[in-house]
Amino acid sequence: MPVSPEYKEFIIEQLERLGPVRMRGMFGGAGVYLDDLMFGLIFDETLYLKVDDRNRPDYEAEGMEPFTYEMTDGSTGSLRYYEVPERLYDDPDELVQWARKSLDAMMVVRAEKLAKAARVAERKKAAAKKQKAPPGKTAPPEKPTTKKKR
C-alpha cells in the first residue's frame, strides 16, 4: 500500500530539525533522505530508521524489530532498518536524536564504500602499471620537440 501524503508530511515535520528532509518513492514505500543519505524508510505508514551496532541496542531495548519483506523464493529478508518506537512521535526532540544516530550509521556506510572504491581503484592502477608491452614489441620512441625559428 502506498504511503499517504499526510503521513509523509507528518514525518517531514517531525524530522525538520535535522534539515531539509525529503522523501523518494520506492517499492510501494518511501525512502527518507537528508542530503543524499537515505537514513530511513516508510512502509505501511510505519517509519523505520537505519541501524548499526552502535544504535541497534536502543531499538532492541524497546522491543522493536527490523524491517522484513518476503523474497521471491518465499523466504524472509530483512534490512538494517528498525521500526521507530511509537512513543517517539510524542517527543520530536528524542525522535531527532534517534534519526541523527541513523544518519551517523549511514555516514559510516558511505565512508566504508568510498574507502573500498579507493582501494579497488588503487589496485587497478597498480595492475595497469605492472602490465608490460608484449615481448619483442616496444613503444616507438618519442620524437624530440623542436621549435621553429622565424
Notes on the protein architecture:
- This protein is an alpha+beta fold and 150 residues long.
- It has helices spanning 5-14, 56-61, 92-130, and strands at residues 21-26, 29-34, 37-43, 46-50, 66-70, 76-83.
- It has a six-stranded antiparallel beta sheet with strand order 1-2-3-4-6-5.
- Strand 3 (37-43) and strand 4 form a beta hairpin.
- The chain is elongated and about 80 Å long.
- The model has no long low-confidence stretch (mean pLDDT 86).
**Termini Cα gap:** 79 Å
Instruction: Quickly count the helices.
Output: 3
Which class of secondary structure composition applies to the elements? Answer: alpha+beta
- Gross geometry: elongated
The main sheet comes to: 6 strands, antiparallel
* Main sheet: strand order: 1-2-3-4-6-5
What integer value in Å does the Rg equal? Answer: 25 Å
**Strand-and-helix sequence, N→C?**
HEEEEHEEH
Level of helix content? 25-40%
Q: Report the portion of residues in β strands.
A: 15-25%
**Low-confidence runs (pLDDT<50, min 5 residues)?**
none
Overall number of strands: 6
Comma- or semicolon-separated keywords:
about 150 residues; alpha+beta; 6-stranded antiparallel beta sheet; 3 helices; 6 strands; about 35% helix
